[in-house]
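User: Before I run my own analysis I want an independent prediction to cross-check against. Here's the chain; please return only the structure tokens and, at the end, one sentence I can use as a sanity check.
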Amino acid sequence: MALVNIKIEGKSYQVDSSLTVLEACRKCGYNIPSLCSFKKDNCSLASCRVCLVEVKGARGLVASCAYPVNEGMEISISSPKAMEARRNSVELILSNHHKDCLQCEKNGKCELLEVSKMVGAREGKFEGVQTEATIDEVAPGIIRNTGKCILCGRCIETCKRLQGIGILGFENRGFKTIVAPAQNRSFANSPCMQCGQCVLVCPTGALMEHSEIPLVDKALKDGKFVVCQVAPAVRAAIAEEFDEKIGTNGTNKMIAALHRLGFSRVFDVNFGADLTIMEEGTELIHRIKNGGVLPQITSCSPGWINYMEYYYPEVIPNMSSCKSPHQMQGAITKTYFAKTHNIDPKDIFVVSIMPCTAKKYERSRKEMEVDGLRDVDAVLTTREVARMIKRSGINWKKLPENEEFDQDLLGQYSGAAVIFGVTGGVMEAALRTAYKVLTGKEHELIKFEAVRGLEGVKEAAVDINGQIIKVAVASGMRNAKPLLDDIKTGKSPYAFIEIMGCPGGCINGGGQPYVKPMFLPNEDDDILETYRQKRAAVLYSEDERQAVRQSHNNPDIIALYKNFLGEPLSELSHKLLHTHYVKDREQYPDK
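Assistant: Structure tokens:
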């Protein structure tokens, strides 16, 4: 690491020569406001001009998000010229921003409002051109409101650089410029995977999840037997919504809050994750033993499924036919659980609490129903359930920390299920069970370190009783693409591939809490580099604490097969727990 000497406000510092002025200043304790970028590799075109500073010798003010540091540089953040320029930039943005702040779901997390306070911007100084806004509410996962868009370009760069797709761009010119899919189409009519990574980086409310809180409110009001089921990644992040540090395990307080919101049962989707391993792992072993299509690819991530159907329908034969864990659990709730408790399945309303916006689309797919009943009736993101908790008056800080998930047929889970929420977790859980099936004994170390870590692509060769099984793990579609290209050309050496739609896995899902520097005053300087590791650590730590750490040893799963399903891949399990995929997405009525 090469270091350079710089001065900020007359004080001397040594910083990494690879940093931008914005990054260097933040590392040295100065908070320059910005909207277009919080990392240089996500910067669009330095377009917002909110982070302007003076650099001695430079021609005019410079955009600190895109200007590299160099030896001897002298930076002034608080000069009258720089402060006035930043204020003018924000005031110009405000002049074209359609204002409905009290109704905006981003209120309290809106970076534009926060930056306005920082620079002392005056609303109404400039008279903007208020063009008619496009409000796209057709897609199940994401809402787009161009009236709130400030043209920062973050979403464009995120879609292009993280996912390698690039469905968003600048449309029209001049005052009529908007950010949109081509020809201002709806997200529902474009090849969008609904992952929500664009929502995570949007600094205003221009991109938001499609809220299903009203559906849940109605079910509770109507006296339905409302069951909520929570994905593993939610516990790793929900505490952040209540101003706790990233990496805080919010499991027990979350359960306490959900009980107080009035849900009839509070279950953990980890049960569904264990069930997925039983079905998906058995499917893999059958393929290996019987010459089936390999590699088998996991099907837990609906964002990845959407991407596959749009861009790689050729790999449908490689896909596991398993539904995702929350869909499986919903189906079991409305059959096995309903029958055991003598409840009419029509009176059960299943709510999945997910870190994901794509799950909203998944639950609406016509394949996700059994005998005319939806597996899942509503999906709430981590952010949405936090809003429900806050509006109810529940004080997060005073919630008890000893409440547990309901233990009622679907309550027990293994450590293998917990790690589903991080990239490599599904693979590791599957390997734990595959090892037992193929060898007759448990893996002595339990952990499979080779598939851990947040790298975009991980490869491993696992020796199971003398049989070498090659596996790969990818998260983010840009990283998955080379693996898929190899499958298309017949060059893939793997037996099993795990793919997650979001970089880092579900811990970084599009429905998770926003992670922005200005909202992290008490965190360490490098939090933007480490927040995924901190969330992942919550899940790995919980895995370590579990008495049962393999899916096939979950007592409730064993009972489910003994009393209801029979065995993995049985006729009944295929009816309830498996699905199929679609080559031509245009056949969907909402398209």
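Sanity check: Residues 131-209 form a domain with the Alpha-Beta Plaits fold (CATH 3.30.70.20).
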